[in-house]
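Appendix B, example 12.
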Amino acid sequence: MKSSRIFSKEALLAYCFVLPALLYMFVFIGYPLIYNLLLSFQEVNVMTFTKPVKEFVGFQNYIELFSKPGAIMPKIIMNTVVFTIGSIAVQFVVGFALALLFKNKFTGSSLIRGVIIIAWLIPVTVTGLLYKFIFAVNGGIINELLLAWGVIREPIQWLLEPITSMIAVITANIWIGIPFNMILILTGLTTVPETVYESASIDGANTVQKLFLITVPMIKPALMSVLTLGFIYTFKVFDLVWVMTKGGPVFATELLSTYSYRMSFDEFNFSQGAAVANILFVVLFIVGIFYTRIIQEDEVM
């Protein structure tokens, strides 16, 4: 009975519709992942790239990454974590506040919301160039304003100092991510019935109580989606940082994504570049599994 259902006309038709998606995922997602994993276990560089058979070295590439002088790899991982958490924290708080604001209809709300979304629609490379000029030493908007207000006496070298360069790239990424957070949270807020707030008002609940006891619990799936997607998108950011600082100065803004690119296409050590990319993939894969389990638990409840 089961075998007849599997090979029924309806099942075969369903397989035909699914097959193109499966082929697409295998060719453009599955094959690159498998090839990248195999590449990280081989010795592939500019000298051995054209050899038909590459030397298998096991976990040697991963060991060399973490044993380099100066503890570069732990520093890069820490940079990635700081960049991700710093960006998401501000993006989420400001995006949530804007979503609460635009939930209430007022004159010009649609126009203002549309203007805010432009920051998310602009290509990331353009945003990187824009903020590179904003944080420029001479003629940069930030320095010009601080000098005009008397806050500083001489221009700050934002992109040339370790701490300030990280602040600059985080600021640029926050500007991009706020509209994304606002849109998703605002969508979740529209699903909360107004009758719930009316009942809470009758019971004497104030604004803060409504926010933390009604709004946040009822839009928890939307908030989890925002945080998870924000983590994934931010953790793998490449183009913004590469345009602004290229990971400098002295690895101060080097992230896993930029380091993987540097190892592969600047130093032509393709195996170690693949190893860094695999580390990035493992972290995001774990976050994805964590998010899936939380969503499944919410659906069961």
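The two ends are 34 Å apart (CA to CA). Residues 9-40 form the longest helix (32 residues).
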